[in-house]
Write a structure and sequence with these properties.
Length: 500
């Protein structure tokens, strides 16, 4: 039995035979690829960023002491969280017209619609520090390029304004406290000076002896120290009382004693307390006060307050001891005074009150000038260094035509594969090998199908035709080798004759 090799023309024959499968697969996959790519185009997302520079300003010496000492990293991290905090987002929503600007923060948080809007704006914002610098990038991701630009710039502006307002509010409060104290001390100074004047007019006593003056000077200094210790202790007691009543630390009460550098554990506790309160405020946006997370933070706050009170009470005991020691010194000097003439002692006492009040008044007047200068400076820790520009798309679109072209190529390949598979399952006789395998006999020739109409036209072209076309169909179409010797059919008969 003859064996035949498969040639390229056999593959071409199969493809031409099954061309409908190839074309249908190519068309379907190409169209589906184009439709899928067109319908699944990602929604445009745009990114815009603004940058703010933050510089920590110093406080007035002896005017107002910070209760917490921040390092640079903690301070920048805190400011980065404040930038995207709920209070800032509320003001941003009002500034952009999403929420009525006349509503208060409490009214906004009572409205679920406004709360969801604020949380949505917050989810669009992220902050990032630029390397080791003190610059923070405000990054906004939005589906609208103009909205991303506007939101980033609005957040930067609102944060800068709130930062300036907070810092100058502290300076204004400090100035107000100093002016109040200055008024009180001024009245006491006037009363003391008037008492000295009246006593001198009454006794005609102008000077004291050197020894009496020396003792009185020592007594004056001792009483000043004793009064200072007592005042610090009383202010510390008030501070403890306010903490126990869940009140905030009064900044004015801190002006008479120093916390920084003396008790690092107290500073750390205060910093931790501030962080927990900020975290609790954020949780209350979404949860009630009975939520386990809020209760856990409340428990931590109470524990920290207890530790703060413990540290403050320890400091109070130290001040109480100093006060007791100084009081003993005052009593000793007073006993020494009693040996002096009564008139001289009284005048010295009155003069001492004048000197004490005068020193305090001078100190407060100096601090008031410093506070006025500081208040006029308009503290600006945050400045805008790079405004946001129109948002840049971060998910570029994919061309559906490219995907469609790839789909056409894949569809064509799959179509040819399906065509070959379909051909392999075709049980009809289509090749010489199929005939030999089916009949179990060798094939010695192939005679093509004779189309009578076609042969009539071929014979007509090569010679004359009889008048009777029926006769042509019956005779000449069966004698192809005679009447059309150059045709393919005639050649097939000659090939068969040769093999026979």
């Amino acid at each position: 039995m003859a064996q035949y090799e498969i040639h390229l023309r056999d593959y071409i024959r199969i493809i031409r035979k099954r061309k409908f499968i190839v074309l249908f697969s190519t068309f379907c996959i190409g169209v589906l690829s184009f439709a899928f790519s067109y319908l699944q185009q990602p929604e445009p997302t745009y990114r815009s960023s603004a940058s703010v520079k933050i510089e920590q300003s110093g406080t007035l010496t002896g005017l107002y002491l910070e209760t917490v000492t921040w390092n640079s990293e903690d301070y920048l991290a805190t400011q980065a969280e404040i930038i995207k905090s709920i209070p800032v987002m509320e003001k941003v929503a009002q500034r952009m017209g999403y929420i009525d600007s006349t509503l208060s923060s409490t009214e906004i948080r009572k409205n679920p619609k406004y709360v969801n809007l604020v949380l949505h704006l917050q989810s669009m914002v992220s902050t990032q520090q630029q390397g080791e610098t003190n610059i923070i990038d405000i990054i906004v991701i939005s589906k609208d390029p103009e909205e991303s630009k506007r939101l980033a710039n609005t957040i930067a502006q609102v944060y800068i304004e709130e930062n300036i307002k907070e810092k100058n509010k502290r300076a204004h409060n400090a100035l107000k406290f100093i002016e109040h104290q200055l008024s009180l001390v001024g009245k006491r100074l006037e009363e003391a000076e008037e008492a000295v004047r009246r006593y001198r007019e009454k006794t005609n006593l102008i000077t004291l002896e050197y020894e009496a003056q020396s003792v009185l000077e020592e007594l004056r200094e001792a009483e000043m120290k004793h009064n200072r210790y007592r005042r610090e202790r009383e202010e510390l007691q008030l501070l403890i009382s306010q903490i126990e009543k869940n009140e905030t630390l009064p900044e004015a009460a801190l002006s008479s004693f120093t916390l920084s550098g003396e008790n690092s554990s107290l500073l750390e506790l205060k910093r931790r307390l501030t962080e927990l309160k900020l975290e609790r405020d954020n949780l209350l946006i979404a949860f009630t006060e009975r939520h386990p997370a809020v209760k856990e933070i409340d428990a931590q706050i109470e524990e920290i307050k207890k530790n703060i009170i413990k540290e403050l009470k320890s400091l109070e005991l130290s001040l109480r001891h100093k006060e007791k020691v100084q009081l003993a010194e005052v009593e000793r000097l007073r006993e020494k005074y009693r040996a002096l003439p009564e008139s001289g002692l009284e005048l010295a006492r009155l003069q001492r009150q004048v000197n004490i009040n005068n020193e305090v008044y001078t100190l407060l007047a100096s601090k008031r000038q410093e506070a006025l200068i500081k208040n006029a400076e308009k503290i600006e820790e945050a400045t805008l260094v790079k405004p946001a520009l129109r948002g840049v798309r971060i998910n570029p679109p994919t061309s559906p035509y490219t995907v469609a072209f790839v789909g056409l190529v894949v569809g064509c390949i799959l179509g040819m594969i399906f065509a070959f598979i379909y051909e392999s399952f075709d049980t009809s006789i289509g090749t010489i090998e199929d005939v030999e395998r089916y009949l179990n006999l060798p094939v010695i020739g192939v005679l093509p199908y004779v189309d009578i109409e076609e042969m009539m036209e071929r014979i007509t072209e090569e010679g004359s035709i009889d008048e009777d076309p029926e006769k042509v169909r019956k005779l000449r179409t069966h004698l192809v080798s005679l009447f059309a010797p150059k045709s393919t059919i005639a050649e097939s008969f000659r090939t068969l004759r040769t093999y026979l």
